[in-house]
Amino acid sequence: MAEHSNGGRTALVIGGGLAGMLAVTALTGHVDTITVVERDRYPQGRAFRKGVPQARHLHILLSGGERALEQLLPGTVDALAEAGARSLELPRDLLTLTPTGWQRRFDECRHRTLSVTRPVLDAVVRERALRAAAGSGTRVEVLEATEAVGLTGDARRVTGVRVRSRDGARCVRDLTAGLVVDASGRGSRTPQWFAALGRTAPHEVTVDAGIAYATRMYRPRDTAAPEVGVNVPGWPACPRGAAYVPVEDGNWLLTLSGVRGHHPPTDAAEFTAFSATIGDPYVHELLGGAEPLSPVYGFRDTCNRRRHFERSGALPDGFLVLGDACCTFNPVYGQGMSVAALGALAVRGTLAGGGSTAEAQRAVARAADPAWLAAVGADRPYAGAADTGAGAGERLITWYLERLAARAAIDPVVGAVYRDVFCLTAPPARLLAPRIALRTVFLPRRPGLPAPPTAVEGAPSGP
Ligand SMILES: Cc1cc2nc3c(=O)[nH]c(=O)nc-3n(C[C@H](O)[C@H](O)[C@H](O)COP(=O)(O)OP(=O)(O)OC[C@H]3O[C@@H](n4cnc5c(N)ncnc54)[C@H](O)[C@@H]3O)c2cc1C
C-alpha cells in the first residue's frame, strides 16, 4: 500500500457498519493503524440502532455473500449459527411463487442462505472483525458517536476526514490518513464532499422500481411447524409481494413490498389486510397462526443506484468506496450485503497482490457487476421517467431473464444455473451457456406447481 507523507501507513474508514467492518478486515495487515469513525454509539447487546434504519427489515445473506464472508473472517458462519441464524437451502427451504406458478423444491444443497436479523449479523461480524484485527499487527480504533462531515485534501488527493463529535460540545477536527474508505452506506455524502474539494461527482446510474417495504416480526403459535420460508415476489401483473422467513429466537420476519401505487401500509390492521392482496393467499393464511411481536416498520428508499468510482479519473488518490456508498440495490433481490462482502474480498485480494487503490476500486466494481445486471435487468419494467434509459442490450437481458425465471421454476438444469448466478456464486455468462439458452428459448413454456409444494424433490445430477 502506498504511503502518504502525512498519513503514513494509516487508514480511516467512514462508517462502522457491515461494509466498514469488512473494510477493516480487508485492510488488516496492509496498514499499521485503522481508525473507524461511526456516527452512532453501538448499542449494548445485539439491538437496533438508528444509523442502519433498514435493519428492521428482512435480510437474507445469499450463498455468494456467505462464502465471501467466511473467506474474509473464517468461522463467522458458525458464529452466526450459534447466535441463532437460520440456514435456508435454496430452493428446498424457501417456497417461492413465480408468475407461472410455485417453484419446485429441488434438494440441490448448493445454496445455503442465512436468515437472521441485521442487529445480530452486524454485531457478530463486528466482534469477529475487531477480534481478528486485534490478533494482527494492525491497530484498530473505533471512534463512536463521531460523524464524518467532509473530506480534507484537494481535487487530486484525499488526505483525511473532517469529523464532528455527536457527544457534548460537538467539536469538529480533522483526522489525517494515507487512505480513506467511504463505507457510510446508502446516505453517503461523497459526491457533495468531492464538490467541496473541487472535483466532479462520479457518474451515477439509477434505476428505481419505486418499491416500498413494510416489516413486522411474528412468532408462530405452532412451534412444530416446518421452518420453511415463503417468498411471493411481485411482478408487473401483480406488483405486490411478501417474504416470510424464520430468524433467531424462534421469531419470523414478514416483509411486504409493493411498487409505486402499491406501497404496503404501516398501520397494523391494514398491513394484515395487504398481505391478503399479494399473488397467493398462503402467507396471509400463515399469519392466522402467528402472534405479532412488533409494530410495522416502513422503508421507501430502495432505488438501484450505482456510482462509477472505478472509471478513469473518477477516484482521487488515497480514497476507496465500498458497500452501499458505492452501489445500492433494490432489496427484494437480497444482494447488498453479499456485494459488500465480495467487494471487501476483492480489495483484500488486490492489495495482497500489490495493487493500487484505483485497481482495488475496479475490483470492487467487477464484484458488483453480476448483482447490478440482475437487479437492473429485472427492474426495468418498473423504472421511472427520471431513471437512466435502457440500451438494446439491457432490454434483451430483461426479455431473456423473464423467460429464464419461468423455466428455472420447473427445470432442475436451468434452475441450478439460475440460482448459481442469482446467489452470486457464478458469473452471469453461465446463463448464456448453450444448453441453458436452448432450454430457455426453445422448450415450451410450462406452468409451475399450482400450490405451495410440501414434497421435496431429489437433486438433479450435475449443474
Ligand atoms: C429495506 C432493505 C432490505 C434489505 N434486505 C437485504 C437482504 O435481504 N440481503 C442483503 O444482502 N442486503 C439487503 N439490503 C441491503 C443492505 O442493507 C446493505 O447492502 C448493507 O447494509 C450495506 O452495508 P453498508 O455497511 O454499506 O451500509 P450500512 O449497513 O447502512 O452502514 C452504514 C454505516 O455508516 C454509518 N454512517 C453513515 N454516515 C456516516 C457518517 N457521515 N459518519 C460516520 N458514520 C456514518 C452508519 O451509522 C452505519 O453504521 C437491504 C436494504 C434495505 C434498504
Summarize the structure.
The chain is an alpha+beta fold and 463 residues long. Helix content is 30%, strand content 23%. It has a domain at 10-52 and 121-204 and 304-375: FAD/NAD(P)-binding domain (3-Layer(bba) Sandwich).
Structure description:
The protein has twelve helices and 22 strands. The chain has 463 residues and is of the alpha+beta class. Strands 5, 6, 14, 15, 16, 17, 18 and 19 form an eight-stranded mixed beta sheet that branches. The chain has a five-stranded parallel beta sheet with strand order 8-2-1-12-21. Helix 2 (63-72) packs parallel to helix 8, helix 9 packs across helix 10 (392-408) and helix 10 (392-408) packs across helix 11. The longest helix is centred in the C-terminal third of the chain and has 23 residues, at 357-379. The model is unreliable at 2-6 (pLDDT under 50). The structure holds flavin-adenine dinucleotide. The site of flavin-adenine dinucleotide (FAD) has 39 residues, from helix 1, strand 3, strand 9 and helix 8.
